[in-house]
Amino acid sequence: MKLWMPGEQLAYEAKEKETELRAAISALKRLGDGPHSLLLSAHYQRYQYNMQSLRPSNTSYGGGAYTAALSQLVFSAIAQATNQIEAFALLVKRHALASSAAAGGLRAAAECVQIALGHCSLLEARGLELCPLLLKLFRPSVEQALDANLKRIEESTAAADDWELTYPSTIARQSVRSSTSLCTSISYNHKLSSSAHRFNVMVQDFFEDVGPLLSKQLGGRTLEGLFQVFDSYIDMLIKALPGYMEEEASFEGSGNKVVGMAETEAQQIALLANASLLADDMLPRAAMKLTSANQSNFKDDTRRKVSDRQNRHPEQREWKRRLATSVDRLKDNFCRQHACFRSYF
Description:
single chain, mainly alpha, elongated, Cullin_repeat-like_dom_sf, exocytosis, Exo84
């Protein structure tokens, strides 16, 4: 009886009917004989049999007909791999990525995608590149998590600030991330006010989470999103200038936050210190994690690593220039206010 034939013999029965084969494997499952391996082996043997069954014709057109038939057989099988990738991505998004992305779990989403890409990259070593398809399928979920994190940074930046410059040790206990990013932030040893310290710590954490996503071609979107968040923070600093109330209609992008006024000159200088240190030093340092993550992720692909590095540096230089332009808005408001003050007196 075929149900009790050895597993290897079943696998080599290439022309076995599908229903009969499934029944045999179902029975073998109770014996613990790896039914999935048997099924894959059976499909492979059937595939090999079909390829060997093709015979080239002796006519002058036989080569083309043979190539066409063989191509249809082989590439239709490869097309099934694409379908399997899509089904796989759907399951991962439904059971892992969807909840992480909706909750803004950027690190969890990145880890899910990175695990999948790790397995996919094993095929690249054998000449089959399916990673671009996988990235295309995962991209919407990852972008959702990315946007949720950027929004969280913007909403969590405290508007209630006394505008007193302190070292970062005063907010060390407030950091959710306890290891690398906090130590990195403290190592810069800059004096900032509490809102700027909070902003910096969250950005450091954000870049740690988003680092692996550079291979998914989200580096540009990441930098653009963070620029928008920083620009919103600059709006908040402008609102803290005493002369803001006269020009309130000009700044609608800063939301409904009630910002404490920087009444003294020292407090107003603290506003400039916050913006300048973040734009000139701390944010560009954090953005360098994108480049370092890119280099570590593609150690085995020299051409792609060199190309990405060449493209990334001009992009980051342009990003830093835009940060400086945003800071100039604060400086212009500061100078205009002090010019008006002096002309009044």
